[in-house]
Amino acid sequence: MTAETSQTLDRGLRVLKLLADTDHGLTVTELSNRLGVNRTVVYRLLATLEQHALVRRDLGGRARVGLGVLRLGRQVHPLVREAALPALRSLAEDIGATAHLTLVDGTEALAVAVVEPTWTDYHVAYRAGFRHPLDRGAAGRAILAARQGSLIEPGYTLTHGELEAGASGAAAPLVGVTGLEGSVGVVMLADAVPERVGPRVVDAAREVADALR
């Protein structure tokens, strides 16, 4: 800690991070041990966070992340979209296909940013806000492969006809972005994805990840 920072705020944020990393919640004693502070301090932190709906406690006294975090999370997508757009524009223009950034939203894949090429005669219409199951389409499959540790070289996923008849997709996961699961990909009207597209998608995913760190 430095003179310019708040110790109380720092502890509160550390509580949220600890709770976000567990599915079963933490007790006051467990939080006290992990933070290295006494139980009274933890009680005060939790009470304050509860007032803002950022933390909830169950009947057994275990603290979990509260629904108030979702309201804050909704403001993340515009920031992520803005950071990703330069790489997506470059990808769309280079490949001549619709480029997109897709993030995990619950059990679904959600397209949060889409860029269509400006010079092609035709391309796949794709819109921000489009949702689909994580296990269908290149975007979701790339995310699942990264989550399961099953993504192998060359680092991207290819699909055909899973979301739209006649359309093929390529996607690569975002790597090294804390607290964010997502992928960058392209979708095109083709029977197969050209060989150069996969590596280019991996490069774009790397650019987006760098912009979000």
Automatic annotation (TrEMBL):
The keyword DNA-binding applies. Signal peptide: none annotated. Residues 68-213 form the IclR-ED domain. GO terms for biological process: negative regulation of DNA-templated transcription. The keyword Transcription applies. This is IclR family transcriptional regulator. Residues 6-67 form the HTH iclR-type domain. Pfam families: HTH_IclR, IclR_C. GO terms for molecular function: DNA binding; DNA-binding transcription factor activity. PROSITE patterns: HTH_ICLR (PS51077), ICLR_ED (PS51078). PANTHER family: HELIX-TURN-HELIX TRANSCRIPTIONAL REGULATOR, ICLR FAMILY (PTHR30136), HTH-TYPE TRANSCRIPTIONAL REPRESSOR ALLR (PTHR30136:SF24). Keywords: DNA-binding, Transcription, Transcription regulation.
